[in-house]
Specification:
By secondary structure, the protein is an alpha+beta fold. It is about 65% helix and about 10% strand. The chain has twelve helices and five strands. Helix 11 links the parallel strand 1 and strand 2.
Length: about 425
């Protein structure tokens, strides 16, 4: 029996195109559903604004206006966060002005009120349409399987154009289901973009605000980078002073004692030399540990996945590394990623009580994404809160955040009491 001929490039590219369109449609559906949520919240805020406006006619509305404006700002901030997850970041404006007149005349507030009116109607409508399309497709594609089990009045296609009374009529509904699928694949991304357009148009900051906020952010991250650098220098100094230097002093003392004992008691000299050799070996091991803490040789000589694999092998908690990083990132980025994983695994081993941990590394576009999970007791917090898997004060997690933000990256920690703990670090690959 001859083997089947390989798929032609045209058929392969066609299947890839359909698969890509399906993934895009699913992502768009997720966007539409999340936009439906903010649309409903916008409708509530719009209703509250309308009640406040009516109440202003009798003078009571002035007392309700601050709460209405804060409600609008809260919904707008949720939409900014949603849009930032699916595309370019939408930076929020400064806090609401303290005075009522200043708040009402503020340009950002007026734009947010306009967005609430548009998104409350249009965003909710598009979200409902996006949610209805897959339901219609599922209804019509599965229709021949159950049409005879329902009352005759319910045996209709999704749009209810006619009542099905026989099998030919039931089979005619199938092409309509295929049509719904085509509409989903081709039109869902457009619906998602249309739903997001008012937010990206009205909720973005005025010209110049983005630059001012960016300068402030860079100033803060630069200060954090300097603090992280100073902390790292202090750590290296302590490691050398408290460990390696003491070992080398011990080696010097023991060699001196061996020289003095060599003439009168060779056996005592040999014992002193043995102790000196042990101290020298310990000093060498500590020096290697300090060097690995600065920049692991395996990271410089090989790759980040290899360095993380070696790191996991030394972790007391069983750890699985799932790394898919084509090519190399900047050396400073790889060093920061290595430090983040090393610190996270140290915290897991010391404080979490976990039985296993996983480290996932992916490169998505120009971002390096790290995810460290463990099945421990949870409760990890950064410095300033109670201990948890982050240790007392959570200083290790604070160090990870400072290093990450120094590279213009982000760190997110989810560690509910009882676990599990998930730490996500994102770094620009080209930093």
């Amino acid at each position: 029996m001859s083997p089947a001929p390989p798929a032609s490039p045209a058929s392969a590219s066609g299947s890839v195109s359909v698969s890509a369109r399906a993934r895009c449609a699913l992502d768009s559906l997720e966007h539409l559903v999340s936009g439906l949520g903010t649309g409903i919240l916008a409708l509530v805020a719009l209703l509250w604004l309308a009640v406040t406006a009516v109440a202003c006619l009798v003078g009571v509305g002035l007392l309700l206006l601050p709460s209405a404006l804060h409600a609008v700002r809260a919904v707008a901030d949720r939409e900014r966060a949603r849009l930032s997850r699916w595309g370019p970041e939408v930076i929020g404006p400064p806090p609401l002005p303290s005075g009522l007149r200043a708040a009402v005349t503020d340009r950002a507030v007026r734009r947010e009120v306009s967005w609430v009116a548009v998104h409350g109607v249009l965003g909710t409508l598009l979200g409902v349409v996006g949610l209805t399309l897959p339901l219609n497709a599922a209804h019509d594609l599965s229709f021949p399987l159950w049409w005879y089990l329902v009352p005759e009045s319910a045996a209709t296609a999704a749009v209810g154009w006619w009542t099905v009374r026989d099998w030919p009529g039931a089979l005619l509904v199938l092409p309509m289901g295929a049509g719904w699928l085509a509409v989903i694949l081709l039109g869902m991304p457009t619906l998602a973009r249309l739903q997001a357009w008012p937010g990206r148009r009205l909720l973005r900051p005025d010209a110049g605000t983005d630059l001012v906020l960016r300068v402030a952010e860079l100033t803060a991250t630069r200060a954090a980078a300097l603090d992280a650098h100073a902390t790292e220098l202090r750590r290296i100094e302590r490691s050398l002073h408290d460990g390696t230097q003491n070992r080398l002093v011990a080696v010097t003392v023991l060699i001196g004692a061996a020289r003095r004992a060599l003439a009168r008691d060779p056996a005592l000299a040999v014992a002193a030399l043995d102790r000196a050799q042990d101290a020298a070996e310990q000093a060498l091991a500590e020096l290697r540990a300090v060097v690995r803490g600065i920049l692991p040789p395996v990271l410089a000589d090989r790759s980040l996945p290899d360095a993380l694999t070696a790191l996991a092998a030394d972790c007391p908690v069983p750890c699985e590394i799932d790394a898919d990083v084509p090519g190399r990132c900047a050396a400073s980025v790889e060093a920061t990623a290595y430090f983040a994983v090393a610190e996270a695994l140290t915290n897991i081993a010391r404080h979490s009580g976990a039985s296993r941990a996983t480290v996932t590394v992916r490169r998505r576009g120009d971002r390096l994404c790290l995810t460290i999970r463990d099945d421990g007791r949870g409760g990890a917090r950064e410095a300033g809160g109670p201990g948890g898997s982050g240790g007392p004060g959570g200083s290790g997690l604070t160090g990870i955040r400072r290093r990450t933000e120094a590279h213009d990256g982000t760190m997110e920690l989810a560690s509910p009491t009882g676990g599990p703990t998930t730490l996500e670090v994102t770094l620009p690959c080209g930093s």
